[in-house]
Design a protein that fits this description.
With 115 residues, the protein is mainly β. β2 and β3 form a beta hairpin. It contains 2 helices and 6 strands. The chain has a 6-stranded antiparallel β-barrel with strand order 1-2-3-6-5-4. It has a single domain, classed as Beta Barrel (Thrombin, subunit H), CATH 2.40.10.220.
Length: 115
C-alpha cells in the first residue's frame, strides 16, 4: 500500500546577502560586446550584478559583456536573463565580489544625489 504523498522539504529562502543587496541607480554606462559598444542605463546594482536598461542587437544569455561606468573601473560579466527593456548581468567574480563595499558606497552616494 502506498502512503500519503508528502510535500518535499521547503528550500531555504534566499536572503538579501545571498543575492547581494540591490539598490536603484539611474546612471549612464556603456556595454561592449562582440566588437560593438552601446549606451545603457543602470537600473539597479549589487556586489554580484547589475540590471541594465537598453537592448543591444543580437544579445543572448551567457553573452560576455564589458561594462564601463564613467569614473569607475570596468566590470566584466555575462548576461543571465533578459526582461522587457533590458537585461541582467552577473559579474565575473570567482574570488569574491566584483564590486567592493567602498565602490557600492560610492554608487549609493551617486544614487542619493541624483546620479
Amino acid at each position: 500500500m502506498v502512503g500519503p504523498i508528502q510535500n518535499p522539504p521547503a528550500r531555504p529562502a534566499l536572503t538579501q546577502r545571498n543575492r547581494g543587496q540591490r539598490f536603484s541607480l539611474d546612471l549612464a554606462a556603456s556595454v561592449a560586446y562582440d566588437e560593438a559598444e552601446t549606451a545603457v542605463r543602470i537600473q539597479d546594482i549589487s556586489e554580484s550584478g547589475v540590471a541594465l536598461l537598453g537592448e543591444p542587437p543580437a544579445l543572448t544569455n551567457e553573452q560576455f559583456l564589458d561594462l564601463h561606468i564613467e569614473g569607475h573601473k570596468r566590470l566584466q560579466g555575462r548576461v543571465v536573463r533578459q526582461f522587457a527593456g533590458g537585461y541582467a548581468m552577473q559579474f565575473d567574480g570567482d574570488t569574491g565580489p566584483a564590486i567592493s563595499e567602498q565602490e557600492l558606497a560610492d554608487f549609493r552616494k551617486k544614487a542619493a544625489s541624483g546620479g
